[in-house]
Amino acid sequence: MGKRILDQVSATANGRSFIVTNRSVLAIAVPMTLAYLTTPLLGIVDTAVVGQFGDAALLGGLAAGALVFDVVFTCFNFLRSGTTGLVAQAVGRGDELEEQAVLWRAVLIAVVAGIVFAALAPLVAIAGQWFISAEPRVSEAMAVYIRIRLLAAPFSLINYAILGYVLGRGEGGLGLMLQLVLNGINISLCILLGLKLGWGVSGVAWATVIGEFVAMLLGLVIVIRRFRAAPRLPRHRLLDLSAFLRMLSLNRDIMIRSFSLLAAFALFTRQGAQFGTVTLAANAVLMNFFLIAGYFLDGFATAAEQLAGRAVGARTAVQFRQAVRLTLFWGFGLAATATLVLLLGGTDLVALITTSKDVRAVADIYLPWAAFTALSGVLAFQMDGVFIGATWSSDMRNMMLLSFLVFSAALLILAPAFGNHGLWAALHVFLLVRGFSLLAILRLRMRTAF
């Protein structure tokens, strides 16, 4: 009891005191779960639009192109997650100027990196074709998708920064609105350009470019109007070298973590391609289900980021422990629900996504593997949220590298022995190692942080 009182006094002294409850967790997690679910919904619509052409090569090309895009952009996901952690800690300390400074530092990085990647789109397409090493028609469709979609690079990365700022402040409703605008425009234009006008893969890519641009404009208008009513940010505070170095260090670790994550998914896709075009297409359909399960969990991981980060900023261990417990409890509940839904309705979803009977038949065989990724991955998602919010990035980086090595070993052993079943089993091994390795480190980190 005495320790709890001391923690509450510390929170009040260092920033804004707060209490972590089921309601505070759900206030962030529910809207962001809905927001994140629009992203795999977009992936399903993209896949369904191209799938209506009944050509497995086009479907495989879209999947491979989306993978290459994700390899590039998810490595810059630190502009979202790193910004969330730093802003949440500033909120915990009650430092309004630092909240602004974190956002604009992230936006500066986003502009520079986005322009570079947009300019390098042709080279990225060539590198993607070399890595995937698929049949010519798959490679051609993949290159078209990449060259167009990378034009949205500056817009996409700025959107990451804005969303990170919003979530760092715990504004799940605003985050939901921004994501609904982004993905709503994207889905509508995908159907119009890709299917109605018959542009196919190129229409899907152009829909993304336009959606990202409109969402960026809306997000900038919102934050600029907000900052006009807040204390003015001095230039020296924005360009503070030590703060920039801290952000770059955090971003470096998250980038390595994200690259390792995407490298695992890239190896998964590449191995699927070696089993044939139909298996590649079937795995692409099922990976959308994995994303659905993942985005269910991401809502509670986001709540863990904000609440854990805020607790670290306020230097209060009670709220930190409560944030860990409650986000994990709700995460497991939602993971079980997602698994049940996919087991019961997954076959119908496969039929909805693609008209290819061969792809449907193969996808139905491996559907249970995709359905159970929610349960095997829940701890990994939730621990990632805690460590990102607390900005314990080096631990997260190291455990991700360890998990990638274990996944690679499992892939080498299980895929040759059990084919595509072994490939999916290796993915589950990867998720489990990620979660339990971070959980093992958490107690040690808490002793030093508080």
UniProtKB/TrEMBL annotation:
InterPro entries: DinF-like, MATE_fam. Keywords: Membrane, Transmembrane, Transmembrane helix. One of its GO terms (cellular component) is plasma membrane. It is found in: Membrane. The chain crosses the membrane at residues 25-45, 57-79, 102-132, 144-168, 180-199, 205-227, 254-273, 285-304, 324-345, 365-387, 399-418, 424-444. Signal peptide: none annotated. It is a multi-pass membrane protein. Pfam families: MatE. Its main location: membrane. One of its GO terms (molecular function) is xenobiotic transmembrane transporter activity. Belongs to the multi antimicrobial extrusion (MATE) (TC 2.A.66.1) family. This is Putative MATE family efflux protein.
